[in-house]
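Late entry, evening session. Most of the bench is empty. Finally got around to the prediction I had been postponing all week. Sequence below, unchanged from the version circulated by S.P.
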Amino acid sequence: MKSACPFCRKELDLMEVFHESDTSAILQMLPSFGTKYAHLVMGYCYLFGVTPFRLKAKKLRLLLEELKRLFDAESFTFEKRKYGISHAGIAEALDAMIKRNFTRALANHNYLKQIMIGISECEDKAAGRTAEKDLR
């Protein structure tokens, strides 16, 4: 049975896909990001050079697992400090990463984390201001 990938429109043989554990884990994880963030997550993963898909399915699965943990926890740690960030903030950081022009494939999430730190601090300031207004 053949079908088309919902993200890249590439033709897939479903029987072959379900036999590969990494591929099936990827397909099971994608709906957890929802339609609102899935395209941003996949765009970010492509910055790591996860194509050709058959050869680098494990790398894509590991990236998706890390991003799923980030979305579920709505927080991350960088240099032994924990930052809280909303789903919208994560999406904003992913979008900024995708729009950058990288000449080489990314090696780690440090650049994303640097962007998320700024967004997280802005969210904290906004939350502090609203909390202060509520007290008045």
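Two things to note before I forget:
The first helix runs from residue 14 to 19.
Helices lie at 14-19, 21-29, 34-46, 57-73, 87-99, 110-135.
Will write this up properly tomorrow.
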